[in-house]
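Entry type: protein chain
Record version: 2
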Amino acid sequence: MDLKNNKVTVGELMEHPGARAVLQRRFPMVVKHPLMGAARTITLEQILSVAQAYVPQKKIDETLNELRRA
């Protein structure tokens, strides 16, 4: 999947079956979160800037690689 230099939105990721599967497998609690619908316009870049404080960099890098292959 083209992540558009991390400018792809959460909505676009969730609509792509392969990307959605990656996110469900790696972050099931986030995908099921009640605010997920409200987050559809947020970019991957914005999420990464927050996630780096809570998620190990190795997990982020592995997830990004899987998303690119999706």
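Comment: Helices lie at 10-15, 17-26, 28-31, 44-51, 57-69.
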